[in-house]
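W.,

You were right to be curious about this one. When I first looked at the sequence I had no strong expectations either way, so I just let the prediction run and decided to look at it fresh. Below is the sequence, 130 residues in total, followed by the output.
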Amino acid sequence: MGLFSTFFGNSSNEKKESPVFPWIELTSLDQLDEIKEKSKAKTQLIFKHSTTCGISRMVIRTFTDTFSLTPEQADVYYLDLHKYRNLSNEVGYKFQVIHQSPQLLIIKNGNTVANASHGSINDINLIEFA
């Protein structure tokens, strides 16, 4: 191992496998009714993400790196705010939250039981809501 590889890591073409995050892409208004209904049996999470915002990128990276719920505990929806702006607005109406970005909504029994934006997203103890 040379001096540069000591400082910069091994330059081999080994690829680290990352676990696949269990996102469900939120793309249609019909899904909002499904989320409301499914929340009666299992916690539903909606992550509203701005693909052009550095803060949103940082928050979503930390969120996915530290997420510890199983698919049996919660469904996790991903909403691209730029691609589905009207849907984002409808999320606010249906679940009674003021739009922010990034934003996480926690839905149980048809209602928003918690929501957070920006860095506060990663402060929520999701286990409490599972």
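Here's what jumped out at me. The chain has a mean pLDDT of 89. And, maybe more interesting for your project: The helical segments are 3-8, 30-38, 54-66, 85-95.

Coffee later to discuss?

I.
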